[in-house]
Amino acid sequence: MKSILLVKWSTLIISLLLLIGLSSGWAYAHATGQNFFAPELNPQNDEVNITGCGNTTPFGQSDSSVAFVFPSAITGTIDLVMNGPAAVATGDTFSVAVVAQHIPDPGLYGAQFEINFNPTLLTLSNLQPNPDLSFVVLNEVDNTLGKLRFAASRQGNVPGLTGDVTLLTFDVTAGNTPCMPTLTFTNVKIGDAQANPFNVIIHPYTFSIGLAPTPTPGTPTSTPETPTATPETPTVTPETPTATPETPTATPETPTVTPETPTATPETPTATPETPTATPETPTATPETPTATPETPTATPETPTATPETPTATPETPTATPETPTPTPTVATVSGQVVLAGRANNDWSGATVELENGTVFSATTEATGNYSMLNVPEGTYTSVTADAPGYLPALCNSPVVTAPLTTLASVSLLSGDVNDDGFINIVDGTTVGVSFGATGSGLAEDINRDGEVDIFDIILVSVNFGVSGPQTWTCQ
Q1: C-beta separation of 473 from 337 below 8 A
Q2: What span, in angstroms and rounded, lies between the C-alpha atoms of 98 and 269?
Q3: Listed residue (108, 163, 110) closest to 136, CA to CA
Q4: Structural contact between residues 339 and 413, judged by C-beta atoms closer than 8 angstroms
Q5: I want to staple 202 with a disulfide (CB 3.0 to 4.6 A). Which of 185, 304, 384, 393 is the partner?
């Protein structure tokens, strides 16, 4: 009987000890931000591999940022971040904002990006674009594949957005698995109103579900460094008055030189009496003047003698006149330049220029946008037109061609007329939107000719939305 009671008491004591140990372990894990139930610690790099989390992430760290760099990018770099809570409970729903930071001039006009996430841990919903990005092409999420896709731009002749701008907000619902998931950016492109790209540094977003929040290291440490550098400014300030008194020191030297001026003044009258001494010599030379004077009328009668010779040569001029039209050229070279705004790498080739007057003379632009028409007869023409795929045509009426060279003024075509109907409207925007993401050469929707239908092509439609052609071209 005693042995049975002893076993029961021993079992009870062991259970109590285990319960105390588990409670202590849970308290320690809660205090340190570690998951007491699921994680397996990797002793080599202190990484926590949480079952079902879908990623291995060191506590207190996030994946390194990635830069999207374009060779022809605008000066300045944009940081693309996601702002949200550092820790949430299982089952919580919270909001995340996608923010483009430090946008320089001329400003953001359009942006596209994708966000990848683990759909077994998170559900995304309620996507809300910035109202300033009113031309929305993509704004969707696939909670089966774990991908959010966004592409939108401004619309019309409006300035770009600068500074820190929220592009999109969305809601995230956390699952019931404690872990630290990460949301990452891919396929990021941001451009200005001319479809010029910005360099972008993207930053992933990592947070904890059902775990204690891990404080972000380093942020408060750098803050006090700013006031430390501030007091150095007044240290330099007192040096300014030290240099100020040196200015009056140099000022009294000016009157020291001043008295020397009157010393040289009396020498002037000393030389003055010498002037009348030379004066009588002047009349001596005076009588010589009339001696040469009578020679003038002697030459005067010679002038009319040469005068009759002029009409003698005059009749020879009409003799040569009929020979002038013979060598005069009757054809000319017509040249100029067509600018295709938004084209990748400033490749302005492929535009067509046509000069019409019953007969059509045409030329195609090179990569620089320059063109030349050879052997064009002189005269006034009905019109000259410049056009390119994806752009509105430009028209100049009654151009005059003169030999040997006629240079027309440069013209910049307006982008966005994808279907070439003379209007930039929703049809063009829809055409680009339907083909969004397509790649290849010769795509009509690929206005900037970079081999992909993307946000830059959307920008080239939306920036001139509502404009119709042909646009006026003052070519001369």
Answers
A1: no
A2: 90
A3: 110
A4: yes
A5: 185
Tell me how far apart the alpha carbons of residues 402 and 344 are, in angstroms, rounded to a whole number: 35
CB-CB contact of 96 with 82 (8 Å): yes
Q: Would you give the DSSP letter of residue 452?
A: B
What's the confidence (pLDDT) of residue 405? 95
3-state SS assignment for residue 377? strand
For residue 179, what are the CA distances in angstroms to 106, 314, 435? 42, 106, 38
Pairwise CA distance, residues 391 & 417, whole Å: 5
What is the chain's length? 476
pLDDT of residue 453: 96
The torsion region of residue 442 among left (phi > 0), alpha (psi -120 to 50) and beta comes to left
Burial class (CB in 10 A: 0-12, 13-18, 19+), 452: buried
Query: Domain spans of the chain?
Result: 56-212, 331-472
pTM as predicted:
0.63
Determine which of 157-161, 280-284, 414-418 has the lowest per-residue pLDDT on average: 280-284
Residue 355, C-beta contacts closer than 8 angstroms, at least 6 positions apart: 334, 361, 362, 373, 376, 381, 383, 384, 399, 401
Split at pLDDT 50, 70, 90, the class of 200 is very high
Query: Which position has the token pair 């774990």?
Result: 146
**For residue 463, what are its two tokens?**
């920036």
- DSSP 3-state of 281: helix
At residue 73 the predicted structure's pLDDT band, cuts being 50, 70 and 90, is low
**One CATH from 3.40.640.10, 2.60.40.4130, 3.40.630.10, 2.40.30.10 for 331-472:** 2.60.40.4130
Pairing of strands 122-129, 383-387: unpaired
Q: Using the predicted structure, report yes or no on whether residue 274 has a pLDDT greater than 90.
A: no
Q: 87-103 in b/e burial notation, b at 16+ Cβ within 10 A?
A: ebeeeeeeebebbbeeb
Nearest to 211 by CA among 88, 121, 56: 88
Question: Do 56-212 and 331-472 show the same overall fold?
Answer: yes
Three-state DSSP state, 200: strand
Given phi > 0 = left and psi -120 to 50 = alpha, else beta, which region is 472?
beta
Alpha-carbon distance of 198 to 221, in angstroms, equals: 30
Domain 56-212 architecture: Sandwich (2.60)
Are 335 and 399 in contact by the 8 Å Cβ rule? The answer is no
CA angle at residue 153 from 81 to 139, to 5 degrees? 70
Average pLDDT for the chain: 75
CA 243 to chain centre: 44
Cis status, amide bond into 308, omega within 30 of 0? no
> Per-residue confidence at 53, pLDDT binned at 50, 70, 90?
low
